[in-house]
Amino acid sequence: LKRIAVLTSGGDAPGMNAAIRAVVRSGIYYNLEVFGVYRGYAGLIQGDITPLNEGAVGDIIHRGGTFLYSARCPEFLEEAGQRKAVTELRKHQIDGLVVIGGDGTFRGAQRLTDLGFPTIGIPGTIDNDIPGTDFTIGFDTAINTVIEAIDRIRDTASSHERTYVVEVMGRDAGDIALWSGLADGAESILIPEVSFRMEEMIARLKRGYERGKKHSIILVAEGVGRGMEIGDRIKEETGFETRVTVLGHVQRGGKPTALDRVLASRMGAKAVELLIAGEHDKMVAIRNNELIGIDFDQAFEQDHQPDLSMYELAGILSI
Ligand code: ADP
């Protein structure tokens, strides 16, 4: 192994820059030449590839987003596109690739490995929805952004005795809603993995009101339904003054937290070590604070599941 490349693909996440930096610097430490690919698989197909030295990744560890840019690339879904990508890599005499992204990115990585090109994945997505790893890069920053927003909403909620519905990201995974709801003492947390009964939530709200609660926060993962509709239902059934906030893309941006920077640094270095060890078709994962490489297939085998004991705990603590 002499030359490796790194790219970021799919939805961006805070901490991706720290992961790129770790791939570049640990690669150089192990006497490899490291290249950066711009705009994910799109740049790979076009051969938009540039050498990165130690200095090229200076002053980025604390920045959100990804300086290599990210993109979605329909052309790469076809085998012709995948072959073009491998041709470009070979043209640059690159013999190993690290891809940072979510499950779509990893499915693309598997195709590269099928074509004989060793590829290792690093999970970077705010949703924490990749099975096989306890955490993904960007999740901690996202939940910190959410709780900061909810803290502010709570101030105004308690001043005005209102019920607030806050819609957060998570089409298929409830981790953002669950973790930030627990961290912020939300009265109810609605996540796609647990079937949700409106009547129960309304009853809970009324119970809280009867025992003197002045305000309530309901956290909704977008996969469950529109916050606006849920807010309307609550207003109809309770008569409580209800406001809805949709946090949207603010959750994707911002400076990565210390935890995300550390995770990204460790995962970046681990990806390089796996390539050096001759591994391919693997994703870097963290389990019980240990970094491991697991087969992509194994990662996709099961669905991602949030920790439902946390869901129960949130229910107990918010009575
Ligand atoms: P994420 O990695 O965040 O899940 P996407 O699902 O958009 O983001 O995937 C990023 C890119 O990975 C896609 O634009 C496409 O180029 C590639 N990709 C996704 N799914 C596949 C697949 N099944 N086969 C090959 N490439 C894929």
Distance separating the two termini? 57 Å
Q: Tell me the β content.
A: 15-25%
Small molecules in complex? adenosine-5'-diphosphate
Helix content: 40-55%
Largest sheet: 7 strands, mixed
Structural class: alpha/beta
Largest sheet, order of strands side by side?
A: 3-2-1-4-5-10-11
Q: How would you name the oligomeric state of the polypeptide chains in this document?
A: single chain
Low-confidence stretches: none
Number of strands: 11
Question: Helix tally?
Answer: 11
Average of the residue pLDDT scores: 95
Note the run of SSEs as H and E: EHEHEHEHEHEHEHEHEHEEHH
**Per the principal axes of the C-alpha atoms, what is the gross shape?**
elongated
Radius of gyration: 22 Å
Topology:
Blueprint: E1 3-8, H1 16-29, E2 33-37, H2 40-46, E3 49-51, H3 79-91, E4 96-101, H4 103-114, E5 119-123, H5 139-160, E6 163-168, H6 175-183, E7 188-190, H7 198-210, E8 216-221, H8 227-238, E9 242-246, H9 258-276, E10 282-287, E11 290-295, H10 296-301, H11 308-317
Parallel strand pairs: 1-2, 1-4, 4-5, 5-10, 6-8, 6-9, 7-8
Antiparallel strand pairs: 2-3, 10-11
The chain binds adenosine-5'-diphosphate (ADP).
Adenosine-5'-diphosphate is lined by residues 9-11, 41, 72-73, 76-77, 101-105, 107-108, 111, 125.
